[in-house]
Amino acid sequence: MEPHENSHAVVDGKVRTLDEALQMIADGCTLMYGGFGGIGTPPTMIEGILQKGIKDLTIIGNDTGFPHIGIGRLVTAGRVKKVIASHIGSNPNAGQRMEDGTMEVVFYPQGTLAEKIRAGGVGLGGILADVGVGTIMEQGKATVSIDDKKYLVEPSLTADVAIVHAKKADPYGNLVYDKSGRNLNPLVAMAGKFTIAEVDEIVPLGDLDPENIVTPGIFVDMVILSRGVNWEWVWEKKPASE
Question: What phi and psi, each to the nearest 5 degrees, are found at residue 168?
Fold first, then answer.
């Protein structure tokens, strides 16, 4: 039987090159990223953004990594104009840029941030949170009372582009994560208007156990093969005396 004229599309699916992925990220865009201290942040995408010279980014994620690890590389290179995160303490360069006014930083408690991202991913307008009631966090925010308890109205978060890192993907973009590298990646994958998954391995359709798939391919627009981590983890550094 002759192969269907679109059979190659089934084989390739959403798999593309790094260059094609970078075409989706422009100066000034809002970029959401997975990762926790760099673990679970897509290294090939970060390197590509640096090499292409993309700048003036608004980034949304759990933290700003370390100075030369994860998303922190973009902060250190001065490519970020605004950060929405739960903390920046592991990256002194982020703190310095915040202090000297060259980078705006907006903080949210980690749970609130994760829920704001999740809400954006499932199409909700926002969430109700009691964290921050009666503090400076309440200033300028709408509030509601339910059963005599006061809540802040926290708008959901979405991004022009979301980048995530997974262990495996099939050509349709179904994703399996690696242990703690999962972190916020599943939530981030849902909240991007265009989501790019960088993966360590691309397997044929049918090879992934459906019970192990965390992010369904419906949330993923493009898949690229990772070139691997190209930074030294903090715990790998040798003491200066060695």
Answer: -140, 155
Sign of CA dihedral 130, 133, 135, 137: positive
Q: What is the pLDDT of residues 140-188, one digit of tens each?
A: 999 999 999 999 999 999 999 999 999 999 999 999 999 999 999 999 9
As beta bridge partners, residue 195 has 162
Rounded distance between C-alpha atoms, residue 158 and residue 175, angstroms = 20
Query: For residue 63, what are the β-bridge partners?
Result: 87
Q: Please, are residues 222 and 188 in contact by the beta-carbon 8 Å criterion? A: no
**Residue type at 237?**
K
**Cβ-based neighbour number of residue 213 at 10 Å:** 16
Low-confidence winner among 10-19, 58-67, 120-129, 207-216 (lowest mean pLDDT): 10-19
44: left (phi over 0), alpha (psi -120 to 50) or beta: alpha
- Say which residue the tokens 């909240």 belong to: 191
